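Below is one such protein, fold included:
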Amino acid sequence: MSTVWIIALIAVVVILLVAVFLVAGPGRRGGGRGLKRRFGPEYDRVVAHHDGDTKAAERELEERVKRHGSLELRPLTPETREQYVARWAAIQEQFVDSPQLAVAEADRLVARLAGDRGFPAEGQYDEQVSALSVHHPQQVHGYRRVHRAAHTESSTEQMREAMLDARELFETLVTAKRVDSGRHRPQHADDRHGRSHAPWSLGKGHHPKGSGA
């Protein structure tokens, strides 16, 4: 009889351990190290936002993974991709004469592109950033910077840097074939002859008027 009770007790313990494992979920497996590897600089940003409280930061990041981790990237047609690339090039040209207008347009363009790729729709900035941070943690800061520059008073240099950072996320979203969780560097958009046709760099020859450069 005692043997039966021992076996039953062992079975109960095993069931409890399995239940704890399932409740913990993929976000907890590997603990903070796993989240830090996945989110990179975004992990440090969230920890700082929570005044160094790593447990609170990890709870927030785990919640993001639960909400957005299964998101599937929608493809762009070649025509739509070309339209986005051309629009970004036009915005860069606009930056030379009207930096503030260009930054506002870049902010809207990234939001629209993210929505077209399957992230939360344009107009849902907080949810877009949350989802983008799960899948593109290395580039999401560029969206934050250009959005902030578009909605606050910024110097020309700050706006230029915001555009350059936003370009990284734009490039990733317009060319990526799948959501890569920030583990792969973005590829360049090439034309049918294999040449890059996306003039994304705000080069030395394109300083905005009044920048003093």
